[in-house]
Amino acid sequence: MDREQELREIREAINAGNLTLQYLNRAREELNAASNFGIADMLGFDFIGGIGKHMKLSNAQKEMEAAKRQVMCFQKELRDVSDILNFQVDIGGFLTFADFFFDGILADVFVQSKINDAKKQVDNAVYHIHQIMTDLYRMEANVR
Question: Where do the structural domains in the chain lie, given as residue ranges?
Fold first, then answer.
C-alpha cells in the first residue's frame, strides 16, 4: 500500500470513529435525560416522569442502534488500516417491559439501574474509541 492510499484509509477510519463517537454522545445525552425523568418518576411525578423517561429511552435506543451499525463500519475501516481487530462494543438493550407493566417504585428502581448500566456501557465504548482514535491520529502523523 502506498503512502497516499494508507493515509486515505487512516482518514476513513478516523471519520468513522468520529461518527461513532457522535452517536454514542447523543445516546449518552438521551440516557442522562431518561435518568432525570426516571428520578422524577420515582419521586411520584408518574405521568410526567414516566412519559418523559420512556420517550428519552426510545430516543437513546435509536441512537444506540445507530451506534451499533456505525461501530461495525468503524471496525471495517480499522481492518483496512491495521491489526486493531479486537475492538468490540457491547451495547445492551433496554428493559422497559417491567416498567410499563409493573409501574411502581421497585420497577422504577430496576429501570433506573438499567439506565445507569447503559450509561456505563456508553462511557466504556467512548473510552475505548478515544484510545483507538489516538492511535489513528498517531498513525496519520507518521504516514504524512
Answer: 3-84+94-138
